[in-house]
Write a structure and sequence with these properties.
The complex is a heterodimer of chains A (111) and B (457). Chain A is 21% helix and 34% strand. By secondary structure, chain A is α+β, with helices and mostly antiparallel strands. Chain A has a single domain, classed as Alpha-Beta Plaits (2-Layer Sandwich). In chain A, strands 2-3-5-4 form a four-stranded antiparallel sheet. Chain A has a two-stranded antiparallel ribbon with strand order 1-6. In chain A, β2 and β3 form a beta hairpin. Chain A is elongated. With 457 residues, chain B is of the alpha+beta class. Chain B is built from 13 helices and 19 strands. In chain B, the strands form three sheets. Chain B has a ten-stranded mixed sheet, with helices on both faces. In chain B, strands 5, 14, 15, 16, 17 and 18 form a six-stranded antiparallel sheet that branches. A three-stranded antiparallel sheet of chain B has the order 9-10-13, with helices on one face. In chain B, β1, α1 and β2 form a beta-alpha-beta unit. Classes of the chains: A alpha+beta (111), B alpha+beta (457).
């Protein structure tokens, strides 16, 4: 079998997402559009990769949790919200659209 | 299958769509109307209102809403669970009772009142007894903000809601009961679930989490295929159709707008999620990795397989304390070189603030239209040089009021003495705002005693 060339694909084409907050932590739930793509997300969208993606925007670490039943990953981005809630000066003080910023990430797909 | 218990969500937060509860009651058969009013810092806003007028301290707009709804609720036999009571559930219940009497419903309605969550008056006693109430996020002891506390409330679970229903309440008005407890309570009451039926309690908790944000699971704020979600103007709020074995459907009234699908519901399941294996409430620990979803009809998703574990011996406590002051000023710069001008204005402003010797904890600048929500990630993907306009948005935060007050005087002058092509200042000078911050803590369950009373109409 010939090896197919890898292609860079933006997450927005492979996944959808929603985010919210708990204090100064933003969460991002990343959901595969097609269940078959979930393993790609598990393999490539690691906590370390997400931390690099948001470099300069976080004061704390990134944690990742897997929800294979929902074909979803959940990320906790600590120190993401300038103090969060009422303290934060950010437009997105409650991290409501942090999820869409993750969808800019590119991952490698062989199809 | 037998007839399900139907619990309709009517409010996802204090300020949600006023038409939603009315549509839920009138749009088809339901057994319960569940309305969640409380966000993390809502209690402190209500505390402030009560300190000015001891009869207040609850979601005021709940009263005219009930005036509109009560006759239909009584006629249709629909019961209500809500945490609209805030820091004064009794005052809220009295106000509803007086509206009910005015509507000629004397003797036709019983109002249950759930209290016991308010710990503000017991803080010294608790601290003296060795309960630290330390900040769950930062680890700091509550002593640090003791003299600035504005509200302290334990999150109560479903148990007192169940007790109120068992004693015949038609409307249950609570203080800080968890969002999920307002949905789980009616299920425990209707199905006779015991307080150690962990899988069933977890199922009711997941149902509560799914509908606690109202339309956010039925097509509102839904990213996947958002352009094809039908008729959001007439969006149907979600309804839980629950069965005694812990399975349930999420659906909505026929003919309403919006959309209920597996991907849409999944977006809501991961909203504000922490560790999905341990979604901790006063009632149980729900494991979100056990949820099985299946579309069983148009706008209908079946939940099954949900597993739970025993609740912890702690309750979460939400305190609010005075933190300081903040203000945000904005100006709009137009093409050509909109973002260059906005950046120049930011430099001028920061220099002036420094020259005045003003001290801030933080100064934050965002360029709305360029990088406000995605930060540097946005600018990796496009060049903002040609944007038709950019809003400069500068915020400051300080412990003292004075520097924030002075900052608010430094925005308008930029219109005449800063970079050109500037507009968008019709709103006038920004106002310094008091910051009341959130303090999450844990407390032994044994220290909190929920209390249920009935108010006669």
């Amino acid at each position: 079998m010939t090896r197919r060339a890898a292609k860079q694909v933006r997450l927005v084409d492979l996944a959808h997402a929603r985010s919210g907050d708990k204090g100064d932590t933003a969460n991002i739930g990343l959901i595969a559009r097609r269940p078959a793509d979930y393993p790609l997300l598990v393999k490539q969208v690691t906590a370390a990769r997400v931390a690099r993606h948001f470099k300069g925007m976080l004061r704390g670490p990134v944690e990742r949790f897997e929800l294979p039943n929902l074909h979803a990953l959940n990320f906790l981005l600590h120190g993401a919200l300038d103090g969060g809630g009422t303290i934060s000066l950010k437009t997105d003080a409650q991290g409501k659209v942090f999820s869409t910023a993750l969808l800019r990430m590119e991952i490698e797909v062989r199809r | 299958m037998t007839t399900p218990l139907r619990i309709a969500a009517g409010q996802g937060f204090w300020g949600d769509w006023l038409e939603a509860p009315w549509r839920q009651v009138m749009g088809g058969p339901i057994d319960f109307l569940m309305m969640d009013y409380l966000a993390e810092v809502t209690m402190s806003i209500m505390q402030k209102q009560r300190s000015r007028d001891p009869s207040l301290g609850y979601a005021k707009d709940f009263i005219p809403l009930m005036e509109r709804l009560l006759p239909a609720l009584v006629e249709r036999g629909v019961k209500v669970t809500t945490n609209a009571g805030g820091v004064n559930p009794r005052g809220c219940a009295e106000a509803v009772a007086s509206v009910a009497r005015r509507l000629g419903l004397r003797g036709k309605l019983r109002i249950g009142v759930v209290t016991g969550d308010d710990l503000l008056g017991r803080v010294d006693e608790l601290l003296a007894a060795g309960h630290q109430l330390g900040n769950m996020d930062t680890g700091r002891p509550l002593e640090d903000v003791r003299d600035r506390l504005q509200s302290v409330n334990a999150y109560l679970g479903a148990a007192p809601v169940v007790e109120a229903l068992a004693r015949g309440a038609d409307i249950v008005i609570t203080g800080r009961v968890t969002d999920t407890g307002l949905t789980l309570g009616p299920m425990m009451h209707a199905f006779g679930w015991t307080s150690d039926a962990w899988d069933l309690l977890a199922a009711g908790t997941v149902a509560g989490h799914t509908v606690e944000c109202g339309a956010q699971c039925s097509g509102g704020n839904c990213l996947i295929d958002w352009e094809n979600i039908p008729n959001l103007a007439d969006v149907g709020y979600p309804i839980v159709e629950a069965y005694a074995d812990g399975t349930f459907d999420i659906t909505k009234h026929p003919g309403t707008g919006g959309r209920i699908t597996v991907p849409g519901v999944t977006e809501q399941l991961v909203y504000e999620m922490g560790d999905p294996r341990q979604y901790i409430t006063p009632d149980c620990i729900a494991d979100f990795t056990t949820i099985q979803l299946r579309e069983t009809g148009k706008d209908r998703v079946r939940f099954s397989g949900i597993r739970g574990r025993p609740a912890t011996d702690k309750l979460k406590v939400s305190a609010a304390y005075f933190y300081g002051y903040k203000a945000v000023g904005t100006l709009v710069y137009a093409w050509p070189d909109a973002i260059k001008k906005a950046r120049a204005a930011d430099r001028v402003l920061r220099r002036r603030l420094a020259d005045l010797g003003l001290e801030f904890e933080t100064i934050l600048t965002e360029y709305v239209g360029a990088d406000a929500t995605h930060g540097p990630l946005a600018l990796q993907d496009f060049d903002p040089a040609d944007l038709p306009e950019v809003q400069l948005r500068i915020g400051v935060r300080a412990r003292e009021r004075a520097p924030v007050e002075r900052f608010t005087r430094e925005i308008a002058p930029l219109i005449l003495n800063g970079p050109p092509s500037v507009t968008g200042f019709a709103g006038g000078r920004p106002k310094p705002e008091e910051i009341v911050a959130y303090w999450p803590a844990l407390l032994d369950k044994t220290q909190v005693q929920a209390c249920v009373d009935l108010v006669a109409v």
